[in-house]
Structures are given as structure tokens and as C-alpha cells.
Amino acid sequence: MVLLGPPGAGKGTQAKLLEQEFGAVQISTGDILRKAVADQSPLGKQAEDYIKRGALVPDDLITNLIAERLQQADCAQGFLLDGFPRTIPQAESLDALLMKLALSLNGVLSVQVPRAVIIERLAGRRTCKNCGALCHTVFDPPKQDGVCDRCGGELFQREDDKEETIANRLTVYDGQTAPLVDYYRRQGILREIDGVGSIEEIRSRIKKALGGIAT
Ligand code: AP5
């Protein structure tokens, strides 16, 4: 499956819930890139400046990364692509890769939320440095300020969640990623989800939309 939607739509939050429920592994290109940056690996060094600016990392870097990742053993049970593809060339590369691996997408979930909600969600997002769990200072607050409920790790605010970088990420989404909605609609595998509401409400909408396709 692919999870599509603007920054802050709740893709990561819902992917983690779907992973627990269906056992399909979440593959977040954003998380992979941020780890590469933190490790200062060759990929991280190439990606760092793009991420800081809220720009997209070049397609070839990402498609190579995904080609390797999808062939790892844990993907055999299925996978949820969170943050990939993000451009038409990335979607075309994914189609070609899946064909080569004799796999196909069960569906593409497009989670849509208005801009004002996106800004609120990104401004309050906190991520655990240790386990990667997500929470929100207002909508899903941790029991203790700055401390992850799940593992006790330290919570941090992402560098690209600054106001001016958010604006750039949204422009990039409108120009380069939003056309994927039509791309997958034409393939007949798009399912549109209203992303406004509580995390639990969105989760039930997704489950309903998945109907019989998630196994
Ligand atoms: P990436 O990490 O993928 O960021 P993104 O797509 O901008 O998405 P986000 O992680 O910001 O949001 P989300 O939809 O996952 O929302 P979340 O669940 O966290 O990419 C970062 C950068 O990496 C890119 O800018 C680019 O540079 C690079 N990159 C990544 N992939 C790439 C690719 N394929 N090609 C090129 N470059 C790439 O939720 C947000 C907050 O809201 C959280 O605090 C959460 O607790 C809260 N929340 C969630 N749902 C709800 C709800 N229903 N109600 C209230 N609060 C909620």
C-alpha cells in the first residue's frame, strides 16, 4: 500500500497503527533519510540540505533506496510506503520495480487535510529520539513534557517543522506530489480519506476504506 498526503496529514501516525494491525512493515522515506543524516552516511550527507530546505531529495537517490529496501526479508509480509512516491517519475519507477519483483499495490490511501489543520499538527508534533513514536503537544500529549510515553526516550521537534520550511514543503507538495492523486485514480486503486478528525476516527475511516483488500 501507499500512503499519500501532504506534510502533517497523519501518514506516519496511521502507518504505525496499520503496521501493528496488519503486520505490513512501514517504510518511511523521511525516517530513513533523517537517520542517514544523523549517522552522516553518504546518503545522509547528500540529503541533508534538501531536507533542511523542505525540498525533495533527487529521485534517483530515493528510488535506489526503495529498490534495496523492498527486497529485504521483512517486506515479504507486505509493506506500507509512507512518503514515497512523491513525484510522477518516482511513481513510474515504483511501477517498474514492482513489476520486476512480481508484486502489485493493493491500494493507495490519499489522506487529505486543509492547510490550517496541517500547520497546527506540524507545529505541535514531537518525535521520540529513541523509538520514533509520534505525539502532539495538544492533540496527543505525552504524560510528561518532553518524555516519550512508550519508551521514556527524549522527544524532539523536527528541524523542518519551522514555519518557513513548512510553507516550502506545502508548495513542493502542491507542485510535485499532488498530481499523484490523479495518477493513482487513473489506475483505479486510489482510496480517498478525509483526514480531519481524531487519530481514532481516521483509523476507522481507513479500515473501512480498506474493506477486504488488507489481508
Ligand atoms: P517526510 O518525513 O516524509 O515528511 P512529510 O511527508 O512532510 O510528512 P510528515 O512526516 O511531516 O507528516 P505525516 O503525514 O507523516 O504526519 P504525522 O503522522 O507525523 O519527509 C521529510 C523530508 O524528507 C521531505 O521534505 C524531503 O526532503 C525528504 N523526502 C522524504 N521522502 C522523499 C521522497 N520520496 N522523495 C524526495 N524527498 C523525500 O502527524 C503530524 C502530527 O499530527 C503529529 O504530531 C501527530 O501526532 C499529529 N496527528 C496525526 N494525526 C492526527 C489527528 N487525526 N488529529 C490530531 N493530530 C494528529
Give a structural overview:
- With 215 residues, the protein is an alpha/beta fold.
- It has helices spanning 11-22, 29-39, 42-53, 59-69, 88-100, 115-124, 163-177, 179-187, 199-210; strands at residues 2-4, 25-28, 79-82, 108-112, 125-128, 134-136, 155-156, 190-194.
- The strands form 2 sheets. It has a 5-stranded parallel β-sheet. The chain has a 3-stranded antiparallel β-sheet with strand order 6-5-7.
- The longest helix has 15 residues, at 163-177.
- The model has no long low-confidence stretch (mean pLDDT 94).
- BIS(adenosine)-5'-pentaphosphate binds at residues 5, 7-13, 29-30, 33, 50-51, 54-57, 62, 83-84, 86, 90, 121, 124-125, 134-136, 139-140, 160, 169, 197-199, 202.
- BIS(adenosine)-5'-pentaphosphate is lined by residues 5, 7-13, 29-30, 33, 50-51, 54-57, 62, 83-84, 86, 90, 121, 124-125, 134-136, 139-140, 160, 169, 197-199, 202.
